[in-house]
Every structure is written in C-alpha cells, then in structure tokens.
Design brief:
Porin; mainly beta; LOR_sf; single chain; LOR; two-stranded antiparallel sheet; Tubby-like_C
Length: about 250
C-alpha cells in the first residue's frame, strides 16, 4: 500500500482513520462477537477467536470467520513491523507488536496477543534448524513462554524442495501424525491454503480487494473455517511471514 493511503499514525485519531480505510467498520468501537470453536490447541481465557466469552454456543457455528490482516503494528509507530488483525465487524481481534526484523539468532520471542493485549501464544525460532523451524508455546501473563519441550504446542517449518506445492508443515505436539497441517500455495503472493492432515482446508489467505482494486501485500484476507482455532491459524501466519522471508520495507509517512 502506498504512503498516501495511510496518514501520519503518530496520533490516535490518524491511526483510526488508517485502520478504517483497510476495513470500513474498524473505526467503530465494536465488541467482537464470540464464536464457539472446536479447539485444536489449548485455548487461553477469552476464547479462540478473540471474544470475551462463549455465551451463545449456537451462534455462528456454520459460518467461516473472515479477518483482515494488516502487516503493521497496532501501536502505530513509524516503521514498525507487526500485525493487526480485524474481524468481520472491524474490531481488533489479534495483534503482534514487534519492532525489528533481526536475524534468526537474535530474533527472540514473538508474542501473539488478543485485541486487548492479553498474551495468547509465544513463537520462538529453533536456532539450529535446516528447515527454519519455529516452535509455539502457551504464553503467560508476564509474556514469557513455557519453553520446555513438554509444553510445546506445535512446531512449524519449511517443507523440503522435493515437496512441490507445499510451503510449510506443522507438527502438533502429542499427535501420532508426523504432519498435522501443511500449507499449499505461496504465502509471499498472498495465495495459499492451510490444510489439515486429511487434506481438508481449514484456512485460506488471499489478496485483499477494495472497490475492485487489489491492495498491496501488507493487507490481506484470512478466512478460517468453522470449528478451527483462530489463534492457532494466526500463529501459523506469523511464522509463515518469517520463514517465507523477504526484505521488510518500513512504511514512510509524508
């Protein structure tokens, strides 16, 4: 997206205007509607999809969940790298606030939070890995992951070059299958599907369109199928952004 599309984000009002252009209703203060899910990894308080509770277990069971992912930190500082994820109502559902893209050895931990800033999942690179592996752990309130292997939720890594059409694969801890999920397509082009071990599509990433115009790759659509843990899928997206690496260009505001 061009710099003109996003005014100076140094003020709260300009940040709201920028977000509203990505998602027309995101400027409104809308509480995300809780949607029940069938958890695939242990869920933190607040539900799988950014809701505050699971009051109505009959609502939205059959509908896919549509999100708009903006590859910018919700904090709105100049040149920051992170994610802001909005639900279909325009409410902030997930966020990742990270202010540098350092080499893997110094990358440290990436923290996936809900829209209110509560920590959900912690992602940490496996330093010695030929396939650029990342591991996911439950995050504590202090923002530190439980980093023992017994608490690891899943591992995600690049696929071998021999696996044509497969970009990455996920192994869930405790699963009898070597590959629990895999990514088909090209994340860098914002055109890929996430499938489970049975080959069923659980999520899809596509280019975002607005008024028949295709936006830049810093804004894209994420559709999560019913019964799938949205936080886990968003963790996959964060790791994909790291292992399908390309130079990061900070947004320069005029």
């Amino acid at each position: 997206m061009t710099a003109a599309a996003f005014p100076d984000r140094s003020s709260g009002s300009m940040m709201a205007i920028s977000a509203s252009r990505i998602h027309p209703s995101s400027a409104a203060e809308t509480t995300p509607k809780p949607t029940p899910t069938r958890p695939l990894v242990p869920l933190p308080p607040g539900g799988a999809c950014g809701g505050d509770d699971g009051a109505d277990a009959s609502v939205g069971c059959a509908a896919a969940l549509h999100h708009t992912v903006w590859k910018r930190s919700s904090m709105g500082f100049h040149g920051t790298d992170g994610f802001s994820v909005y639900d279909a109502a325009g409410a902030l559902a997930f966020r990742v606030d990270n202010y540098s893209r350092r080499q893997k050895l110094f990358a440290g931990e990436l923290l996936l939070m809900d829209g209110h800033g509560a920590p959900l999942l912690a992602l940490r690179p496996q330093i010695f890995s030929m396939h650029d592996q990342w591991n996911c752990y439950n995050a504590s309130e202090e923002g530190q992951a439980k980093t023992t292997s017994s608490h690891r939720l899943f591992s995600m890594r690049k696929c071998s070059v021999l696996q044509k059409g497969h970009e990455a694969e996920v192994s869930m801890s405790g699963s009898s299958c070597s590959t629990s999920f895999w990514v088909e397509g090209c994340f860098r082009r914002r055109s890929c599907k996430i499938r489970n071990g049975d080959g069923e599509e659980v999520a899809r990433i596509t280019r975002k369109k607005s008024n028949s115009l295709t936006l830049g790759d810093d804004v894209f659509s994420l559709v999560v199928q019913p019964g799938v843990d949205c936080a886990m899928i968003m963790a996959f997206v964060v790791v994909l952004d790291r292992i399908c690496w390309k130079p990061y260009t900070p947004l320069i505001c005029s």
